[in-house]
Design goal:
About 40% of the residues lie in helices and about 30% in strands. By secondary structure, the chain is α+β, with helices and mostly antiparallel strands. The chain folds into 2 domains: about 190 residues, no CATH class; about 220 residues, Immunoglobulin-like (Sandwich), CATH 2.60.40. Strands 1, 2, 7, 8, 11, 12, 14, 16 and 19 form a 9-stranded mixed beta sheet that branches. α1 packs antiparallel against α3, α1 runs antiparallel to α4 and α7 packs antiparallel against α8. The C terminus is likely disordered. InterPro entries: Uncharacterised_IM_CreD. Keywords: Membrane, Transmembrane, Transmembrane helix. This is Cell envelope integrity protein CreD.
Length: about 450
């Protein structure tokens, strides 16, 4: 082989390696850009959480409701040796039956751009006691004497600032309600002193209360049997806690849900009587199905895959058409793909996520189509390139909206892309390309 031919091949190989190195550097720079945009999404999400905490501090946080319960403060005295010993304790009696019903009305609050899901819940609570033996506890020490105070009916919330209108009745007679529960384990709430029930009597209390809170409403099933029924106009509930509803219906005009829990399935009643602070609950959260910051963050995670697939497409076009693309053009295409995510993040703060996604994807696809037409030497190629980008954006939205099937969709998409690349390049003479030999020789 002539020396000038060898020199030419060496020059071509050197140019190829230099271009590949430049593309690697460009890809690294674009990864930095994506990381910065991802950091911005994290920052905005943190600011949203700060806004939520601001609402919690000025209004009320997630609410967990406990009660009504009956309790008595007792004191046992006994003699040990030559000294008198005492112990103070609390006798707590959960109801035999507890029924909670009402409506949860969404009341969103705003801090700047950020929306916080809060609510006002009007509840009717009915509790019944059939046995009062635990309100008269026996002495635990030999020769001990137990003295107990008045019987107190208490109702606890996790944040007492959320209590609005409250009316507690016994047998239709309104009781004098005071702040606090007199229970040190669950102090926030209200209480009322009631006449000591007689043996064999059935005690019924009814409580009408309006509770304001943020995002989550939970009820502790601290009773022999607990029935809870909630309705709301919120379309996107998330049911949680230790017990899911036995019946639920979620429709465009809201949701309704019913829970039925017995003490055979829940330890809440026993835990309350034992004075434990952590209790089982049944709960509902008012969530937004599409959080723009979470969705944007998930989209950014696919950014590198987008760039890699686009660079592969441009590289294939170079191979198949002989049209040379400068590294600067690769950089500009990559920047356009990266800035799509920044545009999506900023628009989703002001528009519904789908509208923001369509605008950002449409703008990016339009810019890349006209640029590819000049870069690849023809509008037909530019339209084909833009159509491919539009398909990628469509696939990305499917990945974002189908979280549970995102892995299988992504795997199928990548396999399909690989299959297309292999099909288009199955007849290429890669050695010929490296040596500059024309195809078909």
């Amino acid at each position: 082989m002539p020396s000038h031919r060898i020199a030419m091949l060496r020059g071509m190989n050197k140019a190829l390696f230099i271009k590949l190195a430049i593309l690697a550097v460009i890809t690294g720079l674009l990864c930095i850009v994506l990381a910065r945009i991802g950091g911005l999404a994290d920052e905005r999400q943190a600011r949203q959480q700060e806004a939520e905490q601001s609402v919690v501090q000025s209004q009320a946080g997630p609410q967990t409701l406990l009660g009504p319960l009956l309790l008595r403060h007792c004191k046992e005295t006994w003699t040990a040796g030559y000294s008198e010993q005492t112990r103070n304790f609390l006798a707590v009696l959960p109801p035999s039956h507890l029924q909670v019903g009402g409506r949860v009305s969404p009341d969103p609050r705003y801090r700047g751009l950020f929306k916080i899901n809060s609510y006002a819940s009007k509840l009717s609570i009915a509790a019944r006691w059939d046995d009062f033996d635990r309100l008269n506890p026996p002495a635990e020490n030999a020769g001990g004497r137990v003295e107990c105070g008045d019987v107190v009916a208490m109702f606890s919330t996790s944040d007492a600032r959320g209590l609005r209108d409250v009316e507690l009745k016994r047998d239709g007679r309104k009781l004098n309600v005071k702040p606090g529960t007199t229970n040190a384990v669950h102090p926030a709430g209200l209480h009322a002193v009631i006449a000591t029930p007689r043996s064999g009597e059935t005690l019924e209390l009814s409580l009408a209360v309006e509770v304001v809170g943020t995002q989550r409403l939970a009820v502790v099933p601290a009773a022999g049997s607990t029935a809870v029924s909630l309705q709301s106009s919120w379309q996107h509930p998330s049911f949680g806690g230790r017990f899911l509803p036995s019946e639920r219906e979620v429709a465009e005009n809201g949701f309704s849900a019913r829970w039925q829990v017995s003490e055979l399935a829940s330890s809440a009643a026993a835990d309350v009587a034992a004075g434990k602070p952590e209790l089982e609950t049944l709960a509902v959260d008012l969530i937004d199905p599409v959080n723009p910051y979470v969705m944007s963050d998930r989209a950014i995670k696919y950014g590198l895959m987008f760039i890699a697939l686009t660079f592969v497409t441009v590289g294939l076009t170079e191979l198949l058409t002989g049209r040379r693309v400068h590294p600067v053009q690769y950089l500009l295409v990559g920047l356009a793909l990266s800035l799509f995510f920044l545009l999506l993040l900023s628009l989703s703060e002001h528009l519904p996520f789908l509208a923001a996604y369509l605008i950002a994807a449409g703008a990016a696809a339009a810019v890349l189509t006209q640029y590819a037409a000049a870069m690849l030497g023809g509008w037909l190629r530019g339209l084909a390139f833009g159509g491919g980008i539009a398909l990628l954006y469509g696939a990305l939205y499917v990945l974002l909206s189908r979280e549970q099937t995102a892995l299988v969709i992504g795997a199928v998409l990548l396999f399909a892309v690989l299959a297309v690349v292999m099909t288009l390049t199955r007849r290429l003479d890669w050695y010929g390309l490296a040596s500059g030999k024309p195809q078909g020789e």
